[in-house]
Amino acid sequence: MYLNLENIFKVFPPRGGASEVTAVNDVTLKIEKGELVTLLGPSGCGKTTTLRLIGGFEVPSSGTINLDNEDITSLPTHKRGMSMVFQSYAIFPHLNVFENVAYGLNVMKISREDVERRVNTVLGLVGLTGFETRAPNQLSGGQQQRVALARALVLEPKVLLLDEPLSNLDAKLREQMRTEIRRIQQELGITSIYVTHDQIEAMTLSDKVVVMNKGVIEQIGTPHEIYRYPNSRFVANFIGRANFVDAEVNSSTDSRATVKCFGTTFDINTHEKLETGKLVTLILRPELMSISEGKGDFQGTVKRSLYLGNAIEYDIEADNHLLTFSETHPDRMKMFEPGETINIELHNEIVHYLKNK
Amino acid sequence: MSTNADLKPLRSVSPFRQRMQEFSLIFRDHVLSLSLLLSVLFLIAFIIYPLTKTAINGFFTLDGQFSLEHFKRFFDPYYGPLARKIFGDTLAMGLLTATGGTVLGFIFAYAIVRCRMPGKKFIHLLALVPTVSPPFAIALSSILLFGRNGMITKSFLGITFTSNMNDIYGMDGLVFVQVITFFSVAYLILRAMLERLDPSMEEAARSMGAGKIHIFRTVTLPLLIPGIAGSFLLLFVESLADLGNPLFISGNTTVLSAQIFLAIAGEYDYQKASALAVVLLIPTLVIFLVQRYYVSRRSYISVTGKPTSGLIEEKEGWIRWPFIIVTYLVCALILTLYIAIMYGSFSTAWGIDYSFTLEWWKQMFARGIESILDTTFLSIIATPIAVLLGMVVAFLVVRKNFAGKEIVDFTSNLGGAVPGTILGIGFVLAFSTSPGILVFVLFFVMIIFSIGVSFQTRKEQLITGLSGIAIAFLLNFIEKLTETLLLVYIIAAIILIFGLIELFSHNRKAGRRFILLALYLFSYGLIEYVTYPLSQLLRSIPSGIFKNAITQLPDYIKLFFQLPHPILGCIVIIISVLSFIEKKSKLGKTALIFMIGCSSALIFAGKPLALVGTPYIILAAYAVRSLPASVRSGVASLQQIDPSIEEASAIMGADAQYTFRKVTLPLIMPAMLAGLIFSFTRHMTSLSAILFLVSPKWRIVTASILSEWEQGGISMAAAYSTLIIFFVLIAIIILYIVTNRMIKRRGGIDITWGA
Question: In what order do the strands lie in the sheet with A70-71?
């Protein structure tokens, strides 16, 4: 593996009346060369601290970090050969666009011509040709973002760190930059670690998503795996939304199980043999079920309905469970009123489950 | 909700290891760790050590016997009443000045921020003038105007003073003078608070139907309480520390600071002075601590944020005008006081004959040109030292986390807050003879730093350290047999040899650096061959002002070439460590061992750090006194710079030193310039701390004013004061022009005067 974090702990000592904080709790993470990995989680989950540990802005309390078979745990930041795009962009306010991008090259004492060539190439890559002599305060937010990106890319870093780089942009621009970052990253094949709390960003950008919570890695996987096969309630809830319903295992083989809930039984796919009689928790995605007046697996009563434009959202009571349900199918944009009885179809072949602990 | 997070065990890391890890972040960068070490050493050597020395000295007689004599006096039936009266008067002075100054400061702040007063800018600058003038300027001009021969009291009002009349001398005059001198401290604090007060709170109160006075009482005032309390306490501390004003205007009343001064200047009793210093230090320290760690934390208003945009302005005339009128009146008074000083310096005989004369100025230049030049020269030299140190301390305090950070921050402020007299006594006590403990601390820190960063294994470190010390012993032995100058030459020769070897082994940069260092060390002795003929030549000039002005020139030159040995030692080791750090060749290691030896030998050569009588002790005192101002301006401006900007520089490959030079420094430049000017001002006008440190060779103008005045030449004192004020104003005008130009060029960087 290219970048390895092994059993990393980071404890911040108590300061100014606050108590000791374990920001990163036994994190082990392996990243391949050329991958874009996102660290995803709510604020305070330790994702930024993990990034800062990789960048060398903090030292781990214990554990080791290896880059390209070299132990860099206590290597100072400026010798790590990485670069970073900061949430606040951190553009040098006293330097113009060219000088900002050339900064890292000047530190390396590269010849003037090489600096110019490389800066111009990378400015072309991010679409800022012609802006060389602009001062940072003459740039829009999106342009500043591009400068920050160019400044990081021009160094051809071993690892590119991105700390919520898009959080200060408006929604439209964010979408555009998102695709652009992904395009450039794949074009140059730069190993990148991207910190975000925005699940859409994580889903659309990453080769691999690392979901973190309270300093611990909850799950690592491709965007598809994380959404389809969450391994905890936290992940299921954080990536999209989910209804959790307990079901009893009636019988099971190595790859299938029959479970009982809502007063009926379903066959679900498993990857192991489940113990008969045990309870499992089914994860029912609001957008992966369908409702209709016609046929279905079981019945429910509409408690509340909400028109959102691109979807209709329902709260439905069925067998003493309150389920959230989201209707996005264009053919079924008829709204059911509260009190109506409807039929629910689970699409049991795509239902995932959690074993109760 | 079930998550993996709840189930994992938490590994515990001992608090000690956590602290060490924070240090390892700093010590990864050699320049950063070096600057931390040097700042801490400076604070220990010139603040903690002298103050401790003073405190301890109060309990011991000249023969080293433990004695509580001077503390017992407070309860003694014979001495007691007087001692207690002095203590009581001191506290009364502090309380009255603090109250008066805070009230006046509030009036100024309110008038300027809220009352749409015409001429705000001018008033603002005028209010700051007393803080940048010599410490007794106001006392001097008050005597000129309201004294027994005062222009107003005698000439305008025709009062003839008899012995029983209440004149300007005494407690009332003293408090008046101190209020004028110090109220701008309160003004600056309260102004900043008023500007940052969120107007929506008062608007909310108004929307609920509250009346003006009711809002002020229930909303505005409570929000300002921390600021008011803070200014009160700071003023109290300033008042107690003041020496210049009480010396001249307190009449029959004596306060502690003056008593301490007289104990040394009159009785030459250092134990008594130290004991009294302890008595004065206790209330000062307690209040300083309360102010720093209690009151300032109670603040509801963020001081780091930008001033809020919408300000509330008073519309009703009956509120506005009283504030404006009082402000104008006080400003008129301040202006009159300063004009009186100037006028006094041009009057033949104040109180009797007001005719114009240049006699006093001529005499001043004839007698005092040396002290004027010495003061200016030393003030200028001390300025970059103080500011650089201030910026480094500010950088460490704002940007880095390490155990003891609070102490570093506190100590750097302490040196400026304690009464200067106490610090001055401490300096005399600490540096009259060689302070053994300090020299050893310096030695150990330097040794451990140099071997710690240069060698990895314990064995290597031990061998290097021991062989370095062995060389040092040898060198010091040679020194004992001959003289210190020879030692310096030998060391210079060793360095020169290594420099030449480096140069020929294709390490040009290090080679050149060592050769320069060697030449510098040679010049330690050789400079005499330049300065001696020069002083002979100067002696042949016919006497007059010009001769007096340049006779000091050789000494000024020598100041740069004959630094105290321990400092030379530190320079040698620092340059060698930084040159060899990347290069682990055999030659490099051998060189380093020799350099450790040389620098240790230098640290212990002669009478290390016996600095009294040298100009360096005055430089140190200056730097200590002005440090808080530059630390504060550095902290304020660093807090406004996003730390990611420095991190961005680091991850692009720049080390701490490169980042500081190329990123941090340009961004804090305005604060740094402000720091430079305020430090220079503070140096020019400081009196109490350096009063005992002046020597016949190095004279300080504030001390000259004191002696001139004591000998009756009030007009001479006025001339000196006018000159200092003039110098300081020039410095401030330069700052104003330069920063304005900078702000125009950069745009958007705001500097707040004196905040």
Answer: A21-31, A3-12, A62-67, A70-71
Supply the pLDDT for residue B669. Answer: 83
The answer to whether A137 contacts B647, with C-beta atoms less than 8 Å apart, is: no
Which of B480 and A39 is assigned the larger pLDDT? A39
Whether the CB-CB separation of A301 and A343 falls below 8 Å is answered with no
Asked if the model's pLDDT at residue B306 lies above 50, the reply is no
**Model pLDDT for residues B307-352, shown as the tens digit of each residue:** 444 566 777 778 888 899 999 999 999 999 999 999 988 988 887 7
Of B25, B28, B651, the CB nearest to A55: B651
> What is the average pLDDT value for chain B, to the nearest integer?
85
- What are the φ/ψ torsions at residue A28 (nearest 5 degrees)? -120, 130
Record the tokens describing residue A47, joined without a space.
């994702």
Which chain B residues touch A57 with a CB distance below 8 Å?
647, 650-651
Quick one: chain B helix, strand, coil %, rounded to 5?
75, 0, 25
- The two counts, helices (H) then strands (E), for chain B are 33, 2
Residue B10: band (very low, low, confident or very high) from pLDDT cuts 50, 70, 90: low
Taking the C-alpha atoms of residue A215 and residue B612, their distance in angstroms, rounded to an integer, is 57
* Best to test chain B binding among A12, A87, A94 (most B CBs inside 10 Å): A94
Q: Count contacts between A and B (CB, < 8 Å).
A: 138
Residues of B in contact with A90 (CB under 8 A): 642, 644-645, 647-648
The 3-state secondary structure of B720-752 reads HHHHHHHHHHHHHHHHHHHHHHHHHHHCCCCCC
Where does chain A show beta strands of DSSP type E?
A: 3-12, 21-31, 36-40, 62-67, 70-71, 83-85, 160-163, 192-196, 208-213, 216-221, 243-252, 256-261, 264-269, 279-284, 290-292, 298-307, 312-318, 321-327, 341-345, 352-355
pLDDT in tens, B618-656: 999 999 999 998 898 888 888 888 889 999 999 999 988
At residue B739, the pLDDT reads 74
